Amino acid sequence: MCTSVIYTVGDAYFGRNLDLEVSFGQQVVIMPRDFALHFRKLPTIAHHYAITGMALVQDNYPLYFDGANEKGLGMAGLNFDGPAHYFPEQTDKQNVTPFEFVPYVLGQCATVAEAKKLLKNVSLININFSDKLALSPLHWLIADKSGASIVVESTTAGLNVYDNPVGVLTNNPEFPQQLQNLANYQSVSPANPENTLAVNLSLPVYSRGLGSHFLPGGMDSESRFVKVAFTKENAPVGKTEDENVINYFHILHSVEQQKGLDEVAPNTFEYTIYSDGMDLTTGTFYYTTYTNNQINAVKMPKDHLDQDQLMTFDLQDKPTINYQN
């Protein structure tokens, strides 16, 4: 399970929490402009926008969990088990495999508007990366530095593209139902509530934060969708890049999963393996891991993007504790 957010203050920040029970050895991977993008059913793209993101590199191919390009367009794939459906190859469509989908979009599109145009004739097809690496059931959040965002879901009804007015995504159910569910929490507020239950009674405000009393706090995807939408909507605006990056990570960490709380098999627990976010203006990629809460950063080397070899950076997982005495 996962959570993804576009947070637009000053610059725009796009990224996600990756919640799983096992790590895949992912790295921060920069794909420069001349790294040839080979597709299973489409022509190779020899030159494209540079991409930075979190990926598993397999046979020199970056399998991106999420990323953003040099133009300020971000994209993240989140678990969508159940509703997700991929198709056989179709002669009248642009046939893209789900593991190619992130570089296919980010390599060619600079904005959400361009992505929507590109997606009009796309079909996500059921071809695994290899015998050992089967496709994951996913849906995707795509956002740009203007704050515009869309959700892309491939179901039995076809490829559905939804405008996303809240700029967040978690997992099941399908996006329109997630959006509708927000109506159940529209009275939640950071302010103390007014007494509309019995106006003639003097009811005590016995605690701070009573306005958020009914805000859900479970590990499930509907609860996280509501919680992160509320947190993002009420997040402060910083005066500096550092303040906004910190605020962004607090939004993601408001719905992070701790070990021991989400059992997916006997004695096996899902947890937030990493949280990441890219400044869509500067191209700086930030991340934290479960074992290292320090914010780490990888800058997009804009003077060295016209090359054809991947640049990879291992995650800094070792705990960093600042001992003051």
Walkthrough of the structure:
- The protein is of the alpha+beta class and 325 residues long.
- The chain is built from five helices and 18 strands.
- It has helices at residues 101-106, 112-118, 175-181, 221-233, 241-253; strands at 2-9, 11-20, 27-31, 51-58, 61-69, 73-79, 94-96, 122-124, 138-144, 149-155, 158-163, 168-169, 263-265, 268-269, 271-279, 285-289, 292-298, 311-314.
- The strands form four sheets. Strands 11-10-9-6-5-4-3-18 form an eight-stranded antiparallel β-sheet. A six-stranded antiparallel β-sheet has the order 12-1-2-15-16-17, with helices on one face. It has a two-stranded parallel ribbon with strand order 7-8.
- β1 and β2 (11-20) form a beta hairpin.
- It starts with a strand and ends in an 11-residue tail after the last strand.
- Belongs to the peptidase C59 family.
- InterPro entries: CBAH, CBAH/NAAA_C, Ntn_hydrolases_N, Peptidase_C59.
- It comes from Limosilactobacillus frumenti DSM 13145.
List key phrases describing it.
325 residues; Penicillin V Acylase, Chain A; globular
Give the helix/strand layout:
Elements (H helix, E strand, L loop, with lengths): L1 E8 L1 E10 L6 E5 L19 E8 L2 E9 L3 E7 L14 E3 L4 H6 L5 H7 L3 E3 L13 E7 L4 E7 L2 E6 L4 E2 L5 H7 L39 H13 L7 H13 L9 E3 L2 E2 L1 E9 L5 E5 L2 E7 L12 E4 L11
Parallel strand pairs: 7-8
Antiparallel strand pairs: 1-2, 1-12, 2-15, 3-4, 3-18, 4-5, 5-6, 6-9, 9-10, 10-11, 13-14, 15-16, 16-17
Catalytic activity: taurodeoxycholate + H2O = deoxycholate + taurine; cholate + taurine = taurocholate + H2O
Enzyme class: hydrolase
Organism: Limosilactobacillus frumenti DSM 13145
